[in-house]
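To assess whether ligand presence alters the predicted conformation, the chain was also submitted together with hydroxy diiron-OXO moiety. Input:
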Amino acid sequence: MLSKKLQNELNAQINLEFFSEYSYLSMTAYFESINLDGFSNFFRVQASEEHFHAMKIFDFINTIGGKVNLETINKPVVEFDSILNVFETALAQENRVSESINHLMDTAIQENNHAVISFLKWYVDEQVEEIDLFTNLIAKLKLINNDGNGILLMNSELAKRKAAPEITNTSSE
Ligand code: OFO
């Protein structure tokens, strides 16, 4: 059972996760445009994870008898000054998502809704991982300091990233 308030907040979270997907696709396009296919692969995989995050909430709302309401997805940033600027934009996005998840968790706790609290724990852990991931990549980029060999090495590393097995393009099942 979902209160109107929790249902609205869960729906807003679906929108934010789709916005993340859109943002990471924009970053994918940026790296495609400068021919860094490993970086582009990294963000393409990241976008597919965000799709999975959105659909996981979509399915959860339906499972507990709520109603999904899809809203307009905002336009993402499409111009970037540098590789570092892309990753800093991504980290800012992840911080925003973490705040939103924490706020949702606060609401679920206030309402004593154990099903939602249990469901959201996965997202709390996921956000810790995502912020750690982007923080580490930003530290690496700062060390590389625009050195061409360093960028190419990182490009090869990021080319190896694959979507987690549970992720498909169409569903969270
Ligand atoms: Fe959905 O974790 Fe990133 O935004």
